């Protein structure tokens, strides 16, 4: 029997998403700290909760959910690659 694919949804972030984003990024940072590949992120640096809120207020932060659970975040703007 084949597993059903998760339901994927996308939406712009709002300020109240900051705590969930913090948890997701902290989990990614923890996972990367024990791997051979490292991000330029840090729990007490970038991205900060203030960064999440700023990008959300500008309408640049977008979130993806898999079966209702936060799965990804992306900033879409003309400033960063």
Description of the molecule:
There is one protein chain. With 81 residues, the chain is an alpha+beta fold. It has two helices and three strands. A three-stranded antiparallel beta sheet has the order 1-2-3. Helix 1 crosses helix 2 (49-57). The model has no long low-confidence stretch (mean pLDDT 91).
Strand order of the largest sheet: 1-2-3
Order of helices and strands: EHHEE
Q: What would you call the quaternary organization?
A: single chain
What is the SS-derived class?
Answer: alpha+beta
**Which percent range describes the beta-strand content?**
15-25%
What's the count of strands?
Answer: 3
Low-pLDDT ranges: none
What value does the Rg take, in angstroms?
A: 14 Å
Number of helices: 2
Task: Please give the alpha-carbon distance between the first and last residues.
Answer: 41 Å
Please tell me the overall pLDDT.
Answer: 91
- Described by the principal axes of the CA atoms, the overall outline is globular
Helix content: 25-40%
- Can you summarize the main beta sheet? 3 strands, antiparallel
Keywords:
81 residues, alpha+beta, 3 strands, globular
Outline the fold blueprint.
Elements: E1 8-12, H1 18-33, H2 49-57, E2 61-66, E3 69-75
Antiparallel strand pairs: 1-2, 2-3
Helix pairs in contact: 1-2
């Amino acid at each position: 029997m084949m597993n059903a694919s998760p339901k994927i949804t996308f939406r712009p972030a709002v300020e109240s998403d900051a705590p969930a984003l913090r948890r997701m990024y902290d989990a990614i940072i923890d996972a990367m700290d024990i791997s051979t590949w490292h991000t330029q992120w840090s729990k007490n640096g970038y991205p900060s909760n203030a960064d999440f809120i700023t990008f959300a207020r500008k309408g640049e932060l977008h979130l993806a959910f898999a079966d209702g659970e936060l799965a990804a975040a992306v900033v879409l703007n003309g400033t960063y690659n």
